[in-house]
Amino acid sequence: MAKNDLFEQFLDISDEAEQFATRLKALKEEVTKLLEQNAELRMENQSLHERVEELTAKGSAGKQTKGMTKSKQNLQKIYEEGYHVCSKFYGQHLEPGESCAFCLDILYGDR
């Protein structure tokens, strides 16, 4: 093998390594961005869980008419659309035909 061929191979590998490092850096930045977004969404989700619990407590402590309070009606609508309204699973999708004792307790339980 000639020295020039060996040097050209070295340059090619060096260029490939630089391109790989650039791609790796971009991927690292994207993963970091996604992790930050995930953390923000987790905090927002927790805040929403707390707010739902607070509203549920206020709704059950407030005056009730013959029917449901407006807040419970809203929760019932969400539940009927196929989503959990209980604090344990709030916002998660219910499977078709699935029911949740926690959600039903919030909607129809005596509180």
Would you give an account of this structure?
By secondary structure, the protein is an all-alpha fold. The protein is built from 3 helices and no strands. The longest helix has 59 residues.
Distance between the amino and carboxyl termini: 86 Å
Low-confidence stretches: 62-66
Report the order of strands and helices: HHH
Most strands sheet: none
Assign an overall shape.
rod-shaped
What do the pLDDT scores average to?
84
What percentage of residues falls in helices of 4 or more residues?
Answer: over 70%
Number of domains: 1
What would you report as the Rg, rounded to the nearest angstrom? 28 Å
Give a quick summary of the entry.
It comes from Lacticaseibacillus pabuli. The protein is 70% helix and 0% strand. It has 111 residues and is mainly alpha-helical.
Write the layout of secondary structure elements.
Elements: H1 3-61, H2 70-80, H3 101-108
Fill in the keyword field for this structure.
111 residues, mainly alpha
